[in-house]
Amino acid sequence: AATPGNAALFLDRARLLTVADRPLLALDDCEEALRLQPNSMRARIQKGEALLDDKRTEDAAKIGVSVQLARNEDKHVDEHALRALATNDALIAANAGAPEPLAARAKVLRDLKQWTLALADARAALAMNESMTAAHFEAAHALEGIDDIKEALAQVTRATELDPNDPVKWYYRGLLETKRADLTAAIESQTRSLGLRESVVALRAREENARRIGQVDRANADLQRLQQLAPSGQ
């Protein structure tokens, strides 16, 4: 009551109401927060969660929040994710021409499985800086989330071109190449990833693809190394 213009307080109260299973009251606070800060992604996600809790999936979809919204075991959106959205909301508002907070917010939205919103942020970041590796990487994940594997692969390929020394990007590129049934390219990408940093997941991916195209010796060598690194099969 003392600070009626503070959107963050409305969102904090909305969070408490959501956890208390009072979605309609939470929705009222989210709508007030959005009135005060129309571009708040945290407010949009919380409003979407309240609408989904009230079984209003079509209304949630109208604001871009899908039923895939990731939740914790307590059936609520992760508190740390909401705080991260708020942090990036503030950075975006304070730095209108900076792509970094947009890419960072896209990452949070990706973790929440909100692919359309994540893609919008990644593309907005790329409009500011076409050579931003993180934005290409987030765009790839978001595009995969909406089943546009061809364009997702194009985005992660650009990310590996811009940052060829990141094993994670090469590993992910290999996964998308596998989805596109280009197993030879996928093996090459996983080999690049493994050359930068050995990992169980990249070894397993390369072993499976090598076996599928008849590279039995390589597949067996990778399997042997996997058994050394993860003897329990983990």
Compile the SSE list and pairings.
Elements lengths: L6 H13 L3 H14 L4 H13 L3 H6 L16 H16 L5 H12 L3 H14 L4 H13 L3 H14 L4 H13 L3 H14 L3 H13 L3 H14 L5
Q: How would you sum up this structure in a few lines?
A:
With 234 residues, the chain is mostly helical. Helices cover 72% and strands 0% of the residues.
Task: Describe this entry's structure for a reader.
The protein is mostly helical and 234 residues long. It is 72% helix and 0% strand. It has 13 helices and no strands. Helix 1 runs parallel beside helix 3 and helix 8 packs antiparallel against helix 9. The protein is elongated, with a radius of gyration of 21 Å. The mean pLDDT is 96.
Keywords:
234 residues; mainly alpha
The coarse overall form would be elongated
How much helix is in the residues?
Answer: over 70%
Structural class label = mainly alpha
Reading the helices and strands in chain order gives HHHHHHHHHHHHH
Alpha-carbon Rg, integer? 21 Å
Overall mean pLDDT stands at: 96
N-C termini distance: 53 Å
Q: Beta fraction of the residues?
A: under 5%
Main β sheet profile: none
Q: Would you identify the regions where 5 or more consecutive residues have pLDDT less than 50?
A: none
Number of strands: 0
Counting DSSP H or I runs of 4 or more residues, the number of helices is: 13
